[in-house]
TrEMBL record:
Annotated ranges, domain SGNH hydrolase-type esterase: 158-360
Name the UniProt record assigns to this protein: SGNH hydrolase-type esterase domain-containing protein
Signal peptide interval: 1-20
Species the sequence originates in: Trametes coccinea (strain BRFM310) (Pycnoporus coccineus)
Organism superkingdom: Eukaryota
Coiled coil (UniProt feature): none
SUPFAM superfamilies for this protein: SGNH hydrolase
Annotated Gene3D superfamilies: Galactose-binding domain-like (2.60.120.260), SGNH hydrolase (3.40.50.1110)
């Protein structure tokens, strides 16, 4: 369900000015951005501001009826699109800007206004660009109280390119064909949701794994993954630099790592041998962060054409990458053979990237794969919400 509009229009029709300054001044509960009960996820800089699609925060709030995001000057102008979900209901888009943004909470049928109930609100940036929200404070209604948010035991880390996060206008001719709700509709996000897991998506459209300039990305993912900022920093006047990411801030640490990358290396004519070497070096570096977690290496599902053929790249090389890890004694790296997962009907004809049903199909195929592999979805979210089992 997609819901737009303001909560001010729900139930306050007889008092259209009721949310004005007088109610805000004394009534509201102000949560500063350094409040320990804000559960941040994804990559945030010191301002604090988001980078990378999917970054955001979660709140567990007792007696919630209104929520306003007060955003600072490092927020994308004129707006950034965020996905909002209340009590694990479907995400809907809210466009926010620097200043005060009343977030409609009417996406939830479970009536968060009910006295004595606690709601879970999840908010994340949707885009791979124009994705900066600079959180100064959160205002809640009088009487609302933050509770701890307990993260899931499962935490996915996805690493990829536009095939994991295409949200708008990548490459020529693709304008207008994209996921309207951004990363929230992409297979990594959907997979994380279906396992009731925490999930972080570091996917940079146009970027190669190799650290080369590619389709407007100043760096490849083998470099940028270790940074706070996505490669959009290069085009940003108020933050034209990149800083190391402190992986200790990823709490909980990822339990499962998923990689689907290589399409842009292939397009940039990176040789297969060079690509394999870069991938190996990257995995070695990941093992420094994630000593024993399973790593899932996707083979490309390729570029489908209208005539039913599919063009593959680096054929046999992903197998080699995984075999080589096994030879090194690292048996916790697994090949996910995605051959045949994506056909012409699953992609946007203009840019051959998965469309909305295509992403859902990929997510369900990968979910089935993971279940066969031995991973069980959580039966319930670790932080319960009213009316959710
Ligand atoms: C958010 O802004 C984008 C870009 O202006 C627009 O296309 C979209 O319809 C807006 N979405 C909502 C829910 O307001
Ligand atoms: C950011 O800095 C780089 C040099 O490091 C420069 O090439 C680029 O044009 C700058 N971008 C902006 C938006 O100022
Ligand atoms: C890659 O090689 C092909 C075939 O030689 C060539 O047409 C294309 O321009 C090259 N692309 C890049 C980015 O160098
Ligand atoms: C991947 O799957 C395809 C289609 O089922 C099959 O032809 C191919 O041999 C598989 N590759 C590997 C490495 O298992």
């Amino acid at each position: 369900m997609r819901v737009v509009g303001s909560i001010a229009t729900a139930g306050l029709l007889l008092a259209p000015y009721a949310l004005g300054a007088s109610s805000a001044s004394e009534a509201e509960v102000i949560i500063p951005n350094d409040h320990p009960l804000i559960y941040y996820h994804g990559r945030w800089d010191a301002s604090p501001g988001t980078w990378w699609a999917g970054s955001g925060f979660k709140l567990h709030v007792q007696d919630l009826s209104t929520l306003t995001l007060n955003l600072g000057p490092h927020t994308t102008a004129p707006l950034a699109s965020v996905g909002v979900s209340v009590d694990y209901e479907p995400f809907y888009t809210v466009n926010v800007s620097a200043g005060a943004n009343v977030i409609p909470l009417n996406g939830s049928p479970s009536s968060p206004q009910m006295k004595g109930t606690a709601s879970v609100v999840r908010i994340n940036v949707e885009g791979w660009q124009d994705n900066r929200i600079n959180l100064e404070a959160i205002s809640l209604n009088k009487g609302a109280r933050l509770l701890p948010y307990t993260p899931s035991r499962l935490a996915f880390q996805f690493i990829g390119d536009s095939l994991s996060a295409l949200t708008s206008g990548v490459g020529s001719g693709s304008q207008g064909q994209f996921l309207p709700e951004g990363v929230n509709q992409a297979w990594p996000f959907l997979t994380g949701e279906s396992f009731k897991a925490e999930h972080r998506v570091n996917a940079q459209p146009g970027a190669a794994l190799s650290d080369i300039v590619s389709y407007g990305n100043e760096h490849g993912v083998s470099y940028q993954y270790f940074r706070t900022e996505d490669t959009g920093y290069f085009y940003t006047t108020d933050h034209n630099y990149t800083t190391p990411w402190n992986f200790a801030r990823d709490q909980p640490a990822p339990t499962h790592i998923v990689m689907h990358i290589g399409a842009n290396d292939a397009s940039q004519n990176v040789t297969a041998d060079s690509f394999v070497q870069t991938y190996q070096n990257f995995l070695t570096r990941l093992r420094g962060l994630y000593s024993s977690q399973p790593i899932f290496v996707f083979t490309p599902w390729g570029w489908p054409s209208a005539d039913g053929t599919i063009s593959y790249y680096y054929q046999g090389r992903y197998e080699r990458i995984v075999d080589e890890r096994h030879h090194l004694g690292d048996h916790n790296v697994f090949l996910v053979n995605t051959t045949g997962w994506v056909t012409w009907e699953d992609v946007f004809p203009d840019n051959q990237h998965p469309n909305i049903p295509g992403h859902q199909k990929i997510a369900s195929l990968f979910e089935a794969w993971l279940i066969r592999w031995g991973l069980r979805p959580e039966t319930r979210w670790a932080t319960p919400a009213p009316l959710i089992g």
